[in-house]
Amino acid sequence: MTKVMNTRQLTKKQTALVDTIVARGCTIAKAAEEAGYSKGESGRVTATKTMKLPHVQQYLMQRMNEEFGLSATLAAGTVRRLAMGAKSEYVQLEASKDLLDRAGYKPIDRSQVQVAGDIRVSIDLG
Questions:
Q1: Each residue of 67-123: pLDDT tens digit?
Q2: Of these four, 54, 55, 69, 122, which has the most CB atoms within 10 Å of its CB?
Q3: What is the count of structural domains for the chain?
Q4: Is the distance from CB of 83 to CB of 99 less than 8 angstroms?
Q5: Does the residue 49 lie in any domain?
Q6: 98: left (phi over 0), alpha (psi -120 to 50) or beta
Q7: Is residue 25 included in any domain, yes or no?
Q8: Whether this model's pTM surpasses 0.70
Q9: What local confidence, expressed as pLDDT, does residue 120 receive?
Q10: Residue numbers of the domain that contains 36
Q11: For the chain, where are the alpha helices, taking DSSP H only?
C-alpha cells in the first residue's frame, strides 16, 4: 500500500473507503458499506465527513494520481494501435496527431494579429 506524506495516519476504514472509491468509482454510501462503516444514513454521513479531512483528501489525490498513471499507459497503447491500424483513415490521422501533440510536436498556431494606425484614448473626467 502507498504511504501518505502527512503526520496523521489513515485508519484502516479510511484507507478502505478511499481505495474502494478509486478502484470502483462507486458512491460514498456504497464505498462506506464496503469499507465497514455502519449501514444506512449514518454510515454515509460519517464517510462524507471522513472524505473532507485533509489527510484523507491527500491520500485520495495520491491514489487517483497512481490510478491515472496506470491508465495512461493503456490509453497511450490504444492511441498508438489506432494510429497504426485503424480501418478509418480519419481515425488514424486523429490518433497520429494526438501522439505527435503529446510528444511535443504540436503545429505552430497560425493566428496573426496586425494593428495598423495610431490609437489614442482621452478620458476627460472634469
A1: 998 888 899 999 999 999 999 999 999 999 999 998 888 877 777 667 677 777 788
A2: 55
A3: 1
A4: yes
A5: yes
A6: alpha
A7: yes
A8: no
A9: 78
A10: 12-102
A11: 12-24, 28-35, 41-51, 54-85, 89-102
